[in-house]
Design goal:
The chain has 7 helices and 9 strands; from the N terminus they run H-E-H-E-E-H-E-H-H-H-E-E-E-E-E-H. The chain is of the alpha+beta class. The longest helix is centred in the C-terminal third of the chain and has 18 residues, at 173-190. It is elongated and about 60 Å long. The N and C termini lie far apart (43 Å). This is Integral membrane protein.
Length: 263
């Protein structure tokens, strides 16, 4: 195989890594996600281009051209073709491996595998690999929250309409755990958390989908509806929080400080 073919990158997918939009499986906030890749958490963010070289090895190209990646991803989501070839001048790093799980591979190439690193390659740190989601833990908890945000209607349909907002002083263990999370969420209004801990995305009508994460917990909510809480200490459980008297005001305040993806 020609050296040029070996060095070519066959792009499989791409994702954004910005304060308002990043693969949450990597961390509870943007700086944490950047740390997994050994990147500085610049406010402008990055685009991650995942592909294989001519030998089938996995590589992640980190580009500072966020707009190019965003446009390509938007086109792919609409079923359109879009070429994504990061300009070398915009490449911030070329990292061995993939930080995310992919179920696809480039046709005509060997199965995806970790590259054999050459001592001359300017790479630092270990070969990237996806977080372990085989058991319940922070990564699985965040993926669960992602799923609820994407499939809100299905999850909402499973909740009885009379679910009440958990008030302070609840005696049940479940109430106490959820109340602790809500208190930590409220604390974000007084002390802003790291970028990406609170994110706001488009929902139907005038509503927004809110996502808040913290040590051991994730919250998904709609500003016009209820919230769901997931905990590291409660494997696989999804706990609904009804609107009651307090939740609407809390969600509105959170939306006011949440980061939003660029239009």
């Amino acid at each position: 195989m020609a050296a040029e073919e070996e060095d070519s990158l066959y792009v499989l997918t791409a994702v954004l890594l910005t304060p308002a939009q990043f693969p949450s499986v990597l961390g509870d906030d943007y700086p944490a996600a950047c740390a997994v890749l050994g990147l500085e958490p610049y406010a402008e963010g990055y685009g991650l281009v995942l592909g294989q070289d001519g030998t089938g090895a996995r590589w992640t190209v980190v580009t500072e051209d966020v707009t190019q990646v965003a446009c390509a991803v938007a086109a792919w989501d609409c079923g359109m073709e879009a070429d994504l070839s990061p300009d070398e001048r915009d490449v911030a790093a070329v990292l061995p491996g993939w930080p995310l799980s992919l179920a696809v591979s480039a046709p005509g190439l060997p199965e995806p595998h970790d590259p054999v690193l050459d001592a001359e390659l300017d790479t630092s740190g270990p070969v990237l690999s996806p977080p372990d989601t085989s058991g319940w833990g922070p990564a699985q908890r965040r993926l669960g929250a992602d799923e609820i945000a994407l499939q809100w209607a299905q999850w909402r349909a499973q909740v009885e309409e009379d679910v009440e907002f958990v008030e302070s002083g609840g005696e049940a263990e479940t109430d106490i755990q959820v109340q602790r999370v809500l208190e930590e969420v409220r604390a974000y209004l007084e002390t802003p958390p790291p970028p990406g801990r609170i994110r706001s995305a488009f929902a139907s009508g005038d509503a927004r989908t809110l996502r808040a994460d913290g040590p051991g917990w994730s919250v998904v909510a709609r500003t016009d509806d209820i919230a769901f809480v997931l905990l590291d200490e409660a494997p696989g459980e999804v706990r609904p929080v009804g609107r009651g008297r307090e939740l609407p005001e809390l969600l509105s305040a959170l939306d006011g400080i949440a980061l939003r993806p660029a239009a």
